[in-house]
Design the sequence.
């Protein structure tokens, strides 16, 4: 490599990286409940819910519909959301039982969890970061992704 050439600076972005980017997005731009993004049209970086922040981390921009994601970004989004749900299942299970006593969903809904009236922005950011740490713990050995 010649001295005038720049070495490559990009590496593989992991699921943990995406979850941390979502947490950082919420810290910088704000957290929202009820919809993916606050209904603001005058800024490209509106406050977002946890899932909306993960979408932005995967696509690099506000995404309203799944069809707006290319196949790689969609795969990254689904994987990151699944890792987040697994973390919520282990640390903050929230199950819904119907009137007959049957479990409606075996996994914690990230949407219901995010929209819980008692939820705080700090809890959401902390959960995203903890899910990222857990992913790293399970998928890295000796500093390398596996």
Sequence:
């Amino acid at each position: 490599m010649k001295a005038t050439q720049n070495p490559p600076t990009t590496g593989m972005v992991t699921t943990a990286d995406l979850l941390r980017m979502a947490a950082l997005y919420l810290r910088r731009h704000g957290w929202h409940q009820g919809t993916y993004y606050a209904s603001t049209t005058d800024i490209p970086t509106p406050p977002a819910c946890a899932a909306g922040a993960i979408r932005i981390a995967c696509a690099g921009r506000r995404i309203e519909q799944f069809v707006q994601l290319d196949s790689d970004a969609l795969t990254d989004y689904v994987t990151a959301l699944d890792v987040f749900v697994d973390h919520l299942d282990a640390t903050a299970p929230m199950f819904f039982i119907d009137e007959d006593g049957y479990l409606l969903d075996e996994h914690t809904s990230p949407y219901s969890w995010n929209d819980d009236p008692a939820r705080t922005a700090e809890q959401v950011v902390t959960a995203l970061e903890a899910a990222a740490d857990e992913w790293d713990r399970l998928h890295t050995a000796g500093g390398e992704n596996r």
